[in-house]
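Deliverable D5.2: sample structural annotation.
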Amino acid sequence: MRATRILRNTNLNLKHQNFVKPTLETFGVFKSIFKWSSFFSLVGLVGTLATFEGVNQYVEFTKLDKAASYQYPPPDDADEWSIENDDWSGGLNGGTESSLPWKAAHLIRSAWIALEWGVGTASSAASLNPSLDMSQSYLLSAITHVEAAHSVKNKDAVLNALYLRLADIRQRAGTRVSLNNALDGYEQVHSFLVAHSAPTAMIIKVEKRAGDVCKALGLDKESERWYLKGLSRVSTPQKTNASNTSYLPSWLTRRPQLDSHVDASRLSPAQFRAYVDTLLSLSRLYATSNRLSEASTIQKRLVNVLTKELESVKGLQGDWIRHSLALSEVHLAEVTYAISHKNLHESLGWLQDAEHLSLSANKSVSGVYASDAYRKRQAHKLTSASRRTAAECAYLSGMLHQSRNDTQRALGCFERAIKYALQVNSLTKDLLDSLANDPLNRKYLDAYKNVRN
């Protein structure tokens, strides 16, 4: 009876036990946390995916320019700037080819993002430029997907455009392995363009790049042949003089010759740009291989041709000619001084005129062509290049003044070089300190400090 009364009076309702209620409340809290965590995780995931896709579409429709691939430029591109734009498979439509697989298109855009926006800094000697490495990796994966796809329209043209971009990236990487791979890529693209009767200017551009790679590899003869091959496409064959005929085998006497019979007025705008760029590269090759007289001859020809063209050409083409004339005068100043140090004043004169031309081109082109589908990318590149050339002119002038112990003028030149590079009107300590972390501008800072101290 006693045991029965005890059981009867014992509260067996577990909900009223003091140790159970807190436990149930704890489970409720965890349930709420899990519910809201899942919700916010889902929102975060959706947001991340939306951001990723948004960036991709932004790159697709605003950053990947309209470019001629192996087709001729469109009628509304009078100066043929579409040939200069980088084709990321979309051709004259811009962006990427619409028939590409989803993953291939995203890999191509990722390659562009890594190349143009970067992915960080190198953490080891094995990766000198992680942005280029990542861009190359993405592009190689994209090419693999395109090659395996059966639904891609104009697959050969799409792959050729991607191979050209890959070769450009490898050229920028600058290692011996990457340069050799770049040369293979340019040769492959060159064969495709020639076989499909691509615009002459486009073929010359690839031949010029192949020559640049050969020069970087120390293959001067091969580099010269590539340059001359390009120049021969816009030159008039010379008649040979029978009295100079050699009785030796042709393979002993054959040497590439620069044909001077080029009527610049008959060249299309893109052909003229390709012609000038190739001559500039050839003059650099001669200048660095102790063929100073030949380099000087090319540079003087360029100065004459460009000066004449500048009188009649306006717009972005005129700005480009003005900047190219500045480059030609810079190279002529360097070669003139290298031939004889007695030519100091002549070299300074060329540099002074080149600096003025660069500043004029920079002022003329800045922001003017921002809305043009074909010219905006090239206008942006020309703005940066002209500013860089102006800084280089001031720097070289300072070095020449310093060689004659004219420290006051040298200091003024180095100050101008820094101002041009930083796009400022006055120098502060913080601005000068910022140059120390920039490899391109560090030499201006070093020269400035050496003279000032």
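Annotation notes: The first helix runs from residue 2 to 9. The two ends are 110 Å apart (CA to CA).
The annotation will be released with the project's public dataset once the embargo ends.
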